[in-house]
Design brief:
heterodimer; A: six-stranded mixed β-sheet; five-stranded antiparallel β-sheet; globular
């Protein structure tokens, strides 16, 4: 079973627009991470946010975390065609060492 | 390049067979993770090792086994293969295996069971 669930499953936007992806999870967490996967390749870490943080920025990425709603969002601003990929949230499991991934959001940025 | 090496990149085999997937972690990383990615199941956590010892277990089938060797490379053994085992198998590594660390992923082994 998966801890995190991303929404939407797929998103298609024009270059230059912002893309927002959401992640909901089931149990309390210590950390939440976002990863990107280009088609058929390994995942690449984007950003980690701890449970005591509410917002984090990295370049064109902005991540928010709302532990009361058990949800996180990833915002990519001024998207580029190269941002076309699948994006996954990953959470830890309380009391354990597992990092569990959601089903992912497929983002397609049209040039 | 993540620094994590997985071999082979592609593997085609028949049902009932046994295969071994190999992973070399990033230099300095002590923890290795195995994940299975399929279209219908998403990215499933299989198992994690830290410095040769099993640390966490996910939905790993009894037909599957893994180990981490003293040189820290890891192998995932899949036996009595079924059509449903066809998937992309990823290895990832991190320094200590704590959940506040980012994971570095290999490029995966694409397993096709015919």
């Amino acid at each position: 079973s998966q801890q995190g669930e991303e929404d939407p499953q797929a998103l298609s936007i024009q270059e230059g627009e912002n893309a927002t992806m959401n992640c909901s999870y089931k149990t309390s967490i210590n950390n939440l991470q976002w990863y990107r996967q280009n088609s058929g390749r390994g995942l690449v870490h984007l950003i980690l946010i701890r449970s005591n943080e509410r917002e984090k920025h990295s370049g064109r990425l902005r991540v928010t975390l709302d532990t009361s709603k058990k949800s996180s969002s990833l915002l990519i601003t001024a998207s580029r065609a190269a941002d076309t990929a699948s994006y996954f949230c990953a959470t830890d499991v309380p009391g354990g060492f597992k990092t569990i991934f959601g089903a992912g959001t497929r983002l397609f940025v049209k040039a | 390049d993540s620094g994590v090496t997985q071999t082979p990149k592609h593997l085609i085999t028949a049902t009932g067979q046994r295969v071994t997937l190999r992973c070399s972690p990033r230099s300095g990383d002590l923890s290795v993770y195995w994940y299975q990615q399929s279209l219908d199941q998403g990215l499933q956590f299989l198992i994690q090792y830290y410095n040769g010892e099993e640390r966490a277990k996910g939905n790993i089938l009894e037909r599957f086994s893994a180990q981490q060797f003293p040189d820290l490379h890891s192998e995932l053994n899949l036996s009595s293969l079924e059509l449903g085992d066809s998937a992309l198998y990823f290895c990832a590594s991190s320094v200590t295996g704590e959940t506040n660390e980012k994971l570095f992923f290999g490029s995966g082994t694409q397993l096709s069971v015919l």
